[in-house]
Write the structure tokens for this entry.
Amino acid sequence: MLRWKKWLPFTTGDPVIKRIRRTHSAIFKTKVAFESLKEDRTIAELSSEYKIHPNQITKWKKYFQEHMADIFTIGYGKDENDTVISSLYEEIGRLKVELDYLKKRV
């Protein structure tokens, strides 16, 4: 049987080796994206160091840039409970003023 490329195995008898898809943690993706944002090294250098395709690093970098503001909005500032609590305190204050007004009139 003819091989049309040198690196392809023969179809008869040769086992085909499948590459296992790697999954990376969020911490690793952030580390690589942050390193690419620093621009100390090129994306090619980073891809050879971390054994990741340069397109993948570019995607992570772009995603990191787009969602960088979310880091400071999620978990920071007021959440739903704080807004509910502040509205309840406002209502308590209003009711106290009404009660004091009605006590004076009677």
